[in-house]
Amino acid sequence: MTMPPQGGSGQPPQGDFGGQPEGAYPAPGPGPYPTAAWGAGYPAGPQQPYPGPQQPYPGPQAQPADKGFFGALFDFDFEHVVTPRIVKIAYILAAVVIALLYFVFTVAAFSESVAGGFVVMLIVGPLIGLVYLVLARITLEFYRAIVVMGADIREMKNAQMRL
């Protein structure tokens, strides 16, 4: 690879270049674009000035009036969501159902044998209950995240349409 000619003479420029040894090429000019001395055909810089800061995000728009749980549940236009409201209740119900099933299986295991009952009560039951509780939590968080993302996308779309 050859360096482009400097000043038309084909010789490196002479003089003090900020601590570089004599005869070394100077560093390119400031900015991402090379200067005309470093090669022809490069643009001199950006053609348009920087547009400045963008408009701030206008924030959420006013939502329709809250219809309540049953009003949102029977909203057939799906303008109101019920998922964020029922996630807490669904998680509590899942925990209660898992605890009841743990109790039922422990009683059933004790009715078969005392040793089997202790194994279910101390080892198997808590592990299976914990796994199901974690799965219920992950599933409910997933559903809630999807609903929240949908609401955020709707807000951004409405804000973009207002601009």
Description:
The chain is mainly α and 163 residues long. The chain has a domain at 68-162. Helix content is 52%, strand content 0%. It has three helices and no strands. The chain has helices spanning 68-73, 83-112, 114-162. Keywords: Membrane, Transmembrane, Transmembrane helix. InterPro entries: DUF4282 (IPR025557). The chain crosses the membrane at residues 89-110, 116-135.
Which key features would you list for this structure?
mainly alpha
Secondary-structure map with pairings?
Elements lengths: L67 H6 L9 H30 L1 H49 L1
Short account of what is shown:
The chain has 163 residues and is mainly alpha-helical. The chain has three helices and no strands. The mean pLDDT is 76.
**What portion of residues belong to β-strands?**
under 5%
Query: Termini distance?
Result: 51 Å
Uncertain runs are none
Shape: elongated
* Largest sheet: number of strands, sense, barrel closure: none
Number of strands: 0
Tell me the number of helical segments per DSSP (H or I, 4 or more residues long).
Answer: 3
The H/E string reads HHH
InterPro entries: DUF4282
Keywords: Membrane, Transmembrane, Transmembrane helix
Protein name: DUF4282 domain-containing protein
